[in-house]
TrEMBL record:
Protein name in the entry: Tetratricopeptide repeat protein
SUPFAM superfamilies for the chain: TPR-like (SSF48452)
Highest taxon above the source species: Eukaryota
Signal sequence coordinates: none
Length: 287
């Protein structure tokens, strides 16, 4: 039986801060079900306007009017990342006009799309420990792939991954026998993700946040070189030269490693200059 859907789900949805908008065009109501963030669905894209060469695995001309499989959390381009978010706001049988704002005013991407089927769907809070681990790993790997070209979206993926694992802190209480995975495995992945987040924050010049994300460096016997370097770099930019130097010295034979050696010499020179300036200021004030 066909029903009007306005009363159930409304006719429009938008996420203004992301520039996303969805308007229902038609709906053959069979079941009031939306895909979760962990889901596999079948979609059909009927029309695309103003893509203008942007990367997408779903919106090319050869994919129009054909059923396509979409797995949530797999997007590796901004357009597909946003398209996933839009599809998650659709119900089975819905046809909608989805729009994504671009930097060019008045030139938004317009997509007519239908959600034909939800093959799998599971809310995140019902995932087991191994399932949550592999979801976080997937988000992390996507972030690594997007970091160079799309750093903002890489940051979002790393943040998603961290949120997944935070659900199971404190990790020490997890056992393989009872929970399906040992806590140390989740902790190790969490540290990797924090290191990835530190790279994004360093790019954004959010140095104090880098320090926060890499607090684990001071608690580990052998922290990764990447995490140590990013923490030391943040201290350097904050003019915390003593802390930067001590952080670098955590790495054995840092003098033999080009990046560490270069940063170490910068830190030493800046500290000398800073100390000389301070002494000069004191002399002027009290001389």
């Amino acid at each position: 039986m066909v029903h009007k859907m306005e009363w159930y789900v409304g006719t429009e949805w938008q996420l203004e801060r992301k520039g996303l908008h969805k308007k229902v065009l038609a709906h053959d109501f069979t079941k009031l079900e939306k895909p979760h963030a962990v889901a596999k669905v079948i979609i059909c894209v009927e029309e695309v306007e103003n893509l203008n060469g942007r990367e997408s695995i779903y919106l090319s001309e050869d994919k129009l009017n054909k059923s396509q499989s979409m797995e949530m959390g797999s997007a590796l381009s901004p357009v597909d990342y946003y398209l996933e978010m839009l599809v998650q706001q659709m119900v089975i049988g819905e046809k909608a006009l989805c729009t994504i704002k671009t930097k060019e005013a008045g030139n938004e991407i317009r997509i007519t799309i239908s959600l034909r089927e939800i093959q799998e769907s599971k809310p995140i809070h019902k995932l087991s420990v191994p399932e949550m681990y592999h979801l976080a790993l997937k988000y992390k790997e996507n972030g690594v792939k997007m970091f160079k070209t799309y750093p903002v979206f890489a940051h979002e993926y790393f943040a998603r991954a961290a949120k997944c694992l935070i659900s199971f802190k404190e990790f020490e209480g997890l056992t393989k026998k009872r929970d399906g995975m040992a806590g140390k495995d989740l902790y190790e992945l969490f540290v990797q993700i924090q290191t990835n987040l530190a790279a994004c924050l360093l790019n954004a010049k959010r140095y104090e946040d880098v320090i926060y994300q890499t607090n684990f460096v001071d608690k580990q016997n052998s922290p990764s070189e990447k995490s140590v370097y990013r923490r030391a770099m943040a201290y350097y930019h904050l003019s915390e030269f003593d802390l930067a130097q001590k952080t670098i010295e955590k790495i054995p034979n840092y003098e033999e490693k080009k990046e560490f050696n270069n940063l170490y010499h910068k830190v030493v020179e800046c500290r000398k200059t800073s100390n000389a300036n301070y002494k000069g200021m004191v002399k002027k004030m009290f001389g």
